[in-house]
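Postdoc handover notes: sequence design on the structure in folder B. Input tokens:
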């Protein structure tokens, strides 16, 4: 402590100073007790001056700050320093604390002895709070900076140097923090070759924000990553700082590519895809793919918000619709085929696969329907079923015709033989003629049945349809009458086909008469030819037609046309729209059979009131057309004679043929089958001039029999006979071999002429089957413009 005089001196000086000072002040004895406190300090702490002086510095100092205060005073008193400053907390009267900045100076007497300590106190509580807030903010920012999953670079806006880089920047690029700090951004590995890094800095001099949505970066290990680069300018303590955020968008870009791929894939899928809202009333459509538009003609906007049943029509199958409703009601899936309507009103068969979409709780939120247009398949199935039906009918018709031909041969032959024995004025002659005429009409019927069933024997050669049509022109004009105008449009350079000319002519005649009946008041009949190439797409739609080169013959009329219900049945045998007794229903069936047996294809296009067009496609060949065979002189029984081995399993027909041949001077050896024929041939010691055999025999065919006998009887001619060209005939090469053939039914005169013709040719060293030119067939009486 100083002397009393000194104290009095202080007491005289300090009151004025302390009383008026704007900041807190005090004089503290060297032992730490208050000597003087000014009102400002008392007010600062909430005390009166007297109350404050009754306390001590130690009692008011925050316990956490007391060691520092004690240490500072110790150093000050020990002459370690003359002044000392500290930020500390002082307790207020209400037990709170203020942050203060205390500046302390040691006052010494003249001898240098410490007298007291003068302290100036400033309240810095507000500043400390602000500092704490700044510090907390900086700490938060730093934690965010360090933990961010974006790469962050801090760049000095004045120089362009990187001043900081967060850990994820290193993780993203593979470069350490030291590779960034202190360098220009455009000199650092991943940004070195990217003009945007330098350009962005230049842009930031003029504006405060730069963004690059898709920037490829090459990492230290050579990987390429897609990043989003965003730069912002901030003011930090008045200094412009650039923060560059580098976000890895590789995964997002991949998902975007996958999403685009899914969209393109969905757009490329020919099936339609619909998504409906299962939770909304009436379950409206919420998505429709481009495939849906391609199938139905409705745009996505037109379908949105509507129930799928808007595609259904009055002829949709109730059972199929019920299946869909049941599946939707129980939240399950199903596959069903529905007859739906396109926007233009046309129908199509819609194969719909419906699947539910469930959320995590198992609730059905949506239904996905995948639609496939199966109209072509359904049509093909219908065509296949129709073909099976036609094939079955054909087999039945062929079998009936085969047996019927044998009976007709017997009837015709006996009628002719009896007629030859009657006198011209015999009253029985008229009856026999009626029998013969009826048998001939029956023969025509069997011929049509065989043509439909593709079992008629064809005498094929290379033909040019233009030549065939030119030969028919005059006959067609006489047949159709003056009220039908006929226009032939032959194509130049028309290719050739292989066919039976008589049967091709039969096709034209039948279709022409059919067209005439469809043009009840006259009209126009057009027949045109063309070379066509049917490609793979055509073959895909018309599955029975191989792609390739064809000759087209189209027969068109402008008649009444055919309705949609009738059109699929026009080639069915015995189907007719005529009144009872007006037609047999075999006209178009015959055309169909001839075309198919000739290796061709036939299609019909018609609408009520718009006429009808039949298009026939026959395979085109490169071979030159055959010249017509010259007519041979009539082959009667003159010069007849010889031995004939007759093989026929039908007993009645065998007996009849034997009688006819013997009546014409031939020696006949007969057998019921191949085994008997071999035995007869072995037992007969003389010559056998001709083998006359049916093609289809039990156990051994006629062809096999001829081959067995050929080494034994090399001088024997062969004449085959059959009522139809079934698989057995084709398998044994009768049509291809060009050997002699006699079609059933036949008359005695036909039989003897054919036998004499074959023997004469054989003995002359020629073909065993002379081919004469047949008369052009007339139209079938039942052919009509309306399907029969």
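Designed sequence:
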């Amino acid at each position: 402590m100083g002397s009393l005089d000194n104290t009095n001196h202080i007491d005289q000086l300090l009151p004025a100073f302390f009383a008026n000072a704007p900041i807190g002040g005090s004089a503290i004895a060297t032992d730490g007790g208050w000597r003087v406190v000014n009102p400002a300090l008392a007010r600062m702490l909430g005390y009166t001056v007297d109350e404050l002086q009754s306390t001590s510095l130690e009692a008011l100092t925050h316990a956490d700050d007391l060691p520092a205060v004690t240490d500072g005073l110790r150093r000050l008193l020990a002459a370690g320093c003359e002044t000392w400053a500290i930020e500390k907390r002082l307790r207020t009267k209400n037990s709170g604390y203020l942050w203060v900045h205390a500046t302390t100076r040691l006052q010494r007497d003249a001898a240098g002895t410490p007298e007291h300590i003068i302290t100036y106190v400033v309240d810095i509580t507000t500043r400390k709070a602000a500092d704490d807030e700044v510090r907390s903010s900086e700490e938060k920012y730093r934690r965010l900076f360090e933990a961010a999953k974006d790469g962050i670079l801090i760049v000095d806006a004045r120089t362009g140097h990187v001043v900081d880089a967060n850990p994820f920047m290193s993780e993203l690029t593979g470069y350490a923090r030291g590779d960034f700090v202190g360098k220009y951004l455009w000199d650092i590995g991943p940004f070195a070759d990217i003009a945007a890094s330098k350009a962005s800095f230049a842009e930031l001099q003029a504006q405060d924000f730069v963004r690059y949505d898709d920037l490829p970066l090459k990492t230290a290990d050579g990987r390429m990553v897609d990043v989003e680069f965003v730069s912002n300018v901030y003011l930090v303590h008045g200094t412009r700082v650039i923060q560059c955020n580098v976000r890895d968008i590789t995964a997002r870009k991949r998902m975007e590519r996958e999403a685009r791929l899914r969209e393109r894939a969905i757009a490329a899928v020919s099936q339609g895809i619909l998504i409906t809202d299962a939770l909304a009333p009436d379950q409206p459509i919420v998505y429709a793919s481009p495939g849906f538009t391609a199938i139905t003609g409705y745009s996505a906007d037109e379908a949105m918000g509507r129930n799928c049943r808007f595609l259904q029509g009055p002829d949709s199958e109730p059972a199929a619709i019920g299946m869909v409703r049941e599946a939707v009601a129980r939240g399950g899936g199903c596959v069903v085929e529905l007859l739906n309507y396109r926007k233009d009103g046309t129908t199509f068969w819609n194969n719909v696969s419906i699947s539910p979409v469930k959320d995590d709780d198992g609730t059905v939120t949506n239904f996905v329907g995948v639609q496939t247009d199966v109209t072509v398949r359904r049509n093909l199935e219908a065509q296949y079923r129709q073909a099976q039906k036609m094939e079955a009918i054909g087999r039945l018709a062929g079998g009936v015709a085969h047996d019927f031909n044998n009976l007709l041969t017997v009837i015709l032959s006996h009628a002719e033989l009896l007629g030859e024995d009657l006198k011209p004025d015999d009253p029985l002659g008229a009856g026999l003629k009626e029998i013969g005429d009826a048998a001939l009409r029956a023969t025509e019927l069997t011929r049509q049945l065989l043509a439909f069933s593709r079992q008629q024997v064809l005498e094929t050669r290379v033909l040019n349809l233009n030549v065939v049509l030119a030969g028919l022109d005059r006959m067609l004009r006489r047949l159709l009458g003056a009220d039908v105008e006929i226009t032939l449009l032959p194509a130049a350079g028309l290719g050739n086909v292989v066919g039976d000319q008589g049967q091709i002519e039969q096709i034209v005649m039948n279709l022409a008469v059919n067209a005439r009946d469809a043009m009840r008041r006259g009209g126009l009949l057009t027949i045109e030819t063309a070379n066509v190439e049917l490609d793979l797409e055509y073959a895909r739609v018309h599955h029975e037609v191989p792609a390739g080169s064809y000759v087209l013959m189209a027969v068109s009329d402008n008649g009444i046309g055919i309705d949609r219900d009738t059109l699929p049945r026009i080639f069915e045998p015995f189907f007719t729209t005529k009144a009872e007794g007006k037609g047999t229903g075999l006209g178009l069936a015959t055309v169909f059979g001839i075309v198919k047996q000739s290796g061709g294809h036939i299609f019909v296009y018609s609408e009520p009131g718009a006429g009808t067009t039949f298009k026939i496609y026959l395979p085109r060949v490169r071979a030159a057309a055959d010249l017509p065979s010259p007519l041979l002189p009539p082959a009667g029984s003159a010069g007849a004679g010889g031995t004939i081995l007759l093989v026929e399993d039908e007993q009645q027909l065998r007996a009849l043929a034997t009688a006819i041949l013997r009546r014409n001077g031939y020696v006949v050896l007969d057998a019921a089958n191949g085994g008997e024929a071999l035995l007869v041939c072995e037992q007969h010691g003389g010559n056998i001039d001709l083998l006359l055999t049916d093609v289809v025999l039990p156990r051994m065919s006629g062809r096999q029999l001829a081959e067995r006998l050929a080494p034994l009887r090399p001088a024997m001619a062969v004449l085959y006979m059959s009522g139809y060209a079934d698989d057995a005939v084709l398998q044994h090469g009768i049509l291809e071999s060009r050997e002699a053939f006699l079609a059933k039914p036949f008359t005695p005169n036909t039989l003897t002429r054919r036998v004499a013709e074959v023997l004469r040719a054989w003995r002359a060293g020629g073909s065993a089957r002379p081919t004469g030119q047949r008369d052009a067939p007339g139209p079938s009486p039942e052919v009509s413009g309306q399907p029969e």
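Context for whoever picks this up: The chain has 24 helices and 27 strands. Don't rerun without checking with the PI first.
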